[in-house]
Design a protein that fits this description.
By secondary structure, this protein is mainly α. The protein is built from eight helices and no strands. Helix 5 packs antiparallel against helix 7 and helix 5 packs parallel to helix 8.
């Protein structure tokens, strides 16, 4: 995703440079040329050199320069989470997990929008029923982002090079006990990431079930909302996960 965006940005940069040069050197516009006076020639060379350098630097920045990981403490928006998680796609052993995490972020955003749209169609925003359903939706969203944030904290200290070296050596150069302890540490990293993503899958499933239950209801009192099986399951999931994170 990030690479596709960078390619689009590069195409936009190329288009912008081409348009600028057309305006600068076209006789119908500014009309700079190399065969005119010394000042005009120097200006033409300067603009042309600047255009080339802009394309070279832009290409390097967008396609070849290694991305810088976004500090977890600075993550605020959905786009921030996508950018931060995408950085770790380079870790081969976690590539599938990172892809799943990015998918979860995309699905969470879509499901939230769909659920709020359903609520807007069925309730008035001022109704207590609307507020209760909307509130639990936001709580679930926060929980999913909390899990992703926890994953990012683990990934930030995961040493891919050391892990690869450890797996390659297979205890050949380390005492067996030390090898087992180091292996356990890295396995704990991987297990935590997978566990957090599995919890997110539960969260997304509960949102699907909630939408289904809302669509089945013809009429109900706001006091009945807490008794809905899915609402109770979501409440338990939120409490359990928050307790586990403490």
């Amino acid at each position: 995703m990030i690479y596709m965006i960078n390619y689009i940005k590069l195409l936009g940069l190329i288009f912008g440079v081409v348009v600028m040069n057309v305006l600068l050197f076209s006789p119908g516009f500014i009309g700079l040329e190399f065969g005119g006076g010394a000042f005009t020639t120097a200006l033409s060379v300067t603009f042309l050199f600047g255009s080339v350098m802009t394309l070279f630097y832009g290409s390097y920045t967008l396609l070849f320069r290694q991305p810088v990981v976004l500090p977890v403490k600075n993550i605020e928006t959905h786009e921030d989470y996508v950018e931060a998680l995408s950085f770790y796609r380079r870790i081969k052993v976690l590539e599938e997990d990172i892809t799943l995490g990015l998918s979860q972020l995309s699905r969470m955003k879509k499901k939230k929008e769909t659920l709020l749209n359903v609520l807007n169609q069925r309730f008035d925003p001022g109704e207590l029923s609307y507020k209760k359903f909307a509130s639990v939706t936001l709580e679930v969203e926060k929980l999913l982002y909390l899990n992703i944030r926890s994953v990012l904290n683990r990934l930030n200290v995961f040493d891919e090079a050391e892990y690869a070296s450890l797996m390659k050596s297979k205890s050949a150069t380390l005492p067996q006990k030390l090898f087992q302890e180091k292996t356990k540490v890295y396995n704990d990293y991987l297990s935590y990431v997978k566990s957090s993503l599995h919890t997110n899958e539960e969260i997304l499933l509960k949102l699907d079930q909630l939408m289904l239950e809302i669509s089945r209801l013809d009429s109900f009192e706001s006091g009945d909302i807490e008794q809905m099986p899915c609402m109770q399951e979501i409440d338990q999931l939120i409490k359990h996960t928050k307790l586990y994170r403490q």
